[in-house]
């Protein structure tokens, strides 16, 4: 893990076209802004993990439905 120190209005660049900028610091919270192309998906980590779990569950349900369909074909 790369650890950087940034002050308000300072940025880091990821790749060639993603900028992460510190917008403010207040009461222990850091406000950041992210500039990226529209095709780059950006999620808070907890939301990303929820999406991954839901996709995993949906995949399992699809497999179960496919198995049921196969049973009725016989």
Structure description:
This protein has 74 residues and is α+β, with helices and mostly antiparallel strands. It has 2 domains: 1-38, no CATH class; 43-74. 39% of the residues lie in helices and 27% in strands. The protein has 1 helix and 3 strands. It has one helix at residues 45-73, and strands at residues 11-14, 18-26, 29-35. The chain has a 3-stranded antiparallel beta sheet, with no helix packed on it. It is elongated and about 65 Å long. The model has no long low-confidence stretch (mean pLDDT 89). One of its GO terms (cellular component) is cytosol. Belongs to the CsrA/RsmA family. Keywords: Bacterial flagellum biogenesis, Cytoplasm, Repressor, RNA-binding, Translation regulation. Homodimer; the beta-strands of each monomer intercalate to form a hydrophobic core, while the alpha-helices form wings that extend away from the core.
List the helices and strands and how they pair.
Layout: E1 11-14, E2 18-26, E3 29-35, H1 45-73
Antiparallel strand pairs: 1-2, 2-3
Organism: Alkaliphilus pronyensis
GO molecular function, one term: mRNA 5'-UTR binding
Family: Belongs to the CsrA/RsmA family.
Shape: elongated
Mean pLDDT: 89
Element-by-element helix/strand order: EEEH
Number of domains: 2
Radius of gyration: 21 Å
Structural class: alpha+beta
Please state roughly what percent of the residues sit in beta strands, choosing from under 5%, 5-15%, 15-25%, 25-35%, 35-45% or over 45%. 25-35%
Give the neighbour order of strands across the main sheet.
Answer: 1-2-3
Number of strands: 3
Characterize the main sheet. 3 strands, antiparallel
Distance between the termini: 54 Å
Low-pLDDT ranges = none
**Number of helical elements:** 1
Helicity, as a percent range:
25-40%
């Amino acid at each position: 893990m790369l650890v950087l120190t940034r002050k308000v209005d300072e940025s880091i660049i990821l790749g060639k076209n993603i900028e992460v900028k510190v917008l403010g610091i207040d009461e222990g919270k850091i406000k950041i802004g992210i500039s990226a192309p529209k095709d780059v998906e950006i999620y808070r980590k907890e939301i990303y993990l929820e999406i991954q779990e839901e996709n995993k569950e949906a995949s399992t349900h699809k497999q179960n439905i496919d198995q049921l369909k196969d049973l009725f074909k016989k």
